[in-house]
Design a protein that fits this description.
Blueprint: H1 6-9, H2 17-35, E1 53-56, E2 65-68, E3 71-77, E4 80-85, E5 102-104, E6 111-113, E7 119-121, E8 130-131, E9 133-136, E10 139-142
Length: about 140
């Protein structure tokens, strides 16, 4: 006669502590990995499509720049605007706005010229990738 306890006595259906913890760890790791990098475009890709307004001319200081949607827009001289992919070619870390004409990657201190994006120093083996832009009134658009 079945007393309802046969299921509990059958060890085929019981999980060991090791199996339970391994499964829980795998689920947790999968959740963490799925969240990595969310919101930022992959290295080498920028979020802005041609014709997209990146920023306004008044928001980019002379001698400085601003990062918008994975694009670094700089104004090395008054009225001259250039843009670069804000991803460091070394390991894909986002670079910051230039200081004193130099763009620096916070990860390993690769440095680049704000004038032309050329590599100045550090572990990066090449300069920043230029992104074509155009000015329409006070808007800076991806060309």
């Amino acid at each position: 006669m079945y007393d309802g306890q046969d299921f509990l006595r059958d060890n085929r259906w019981c999980l060991s502590r090791r199996t339970l913890l391994t499964g829980a760890g795998a689920v947790g790791a999968a959740g963490l990995l799925s969240a990595c990098g969310a919101g930022d475009p992959p290295a080498g890709q920028t979020a802005a499509e041609p014709g997209t307004v990146l920023t306004r001319t008044g928001d980019v200081p002379v001698g400085g720049g601003t990062v918008v949607g994975g694009v670094l827009v700089v104004q090395p001289e008054a009225g001259t605007f250039t843009a670069y992919d804000a991803t460091c070619p070394h390991q894909g870390v986002r670079v910051g706005a230039p200081r004193d004409g130099v763009i620096t990657c916070p990860a390993h201190n690769s440095t680049f010229s704000a004038t032309d994006g050329a590599r100045l120093s550090g572990p990066a083996t090449r300069g920043l990738t230029e992104i074509p832009v155009r000015v329409d009134g006070t808007d800076i658009l991806r060309a």
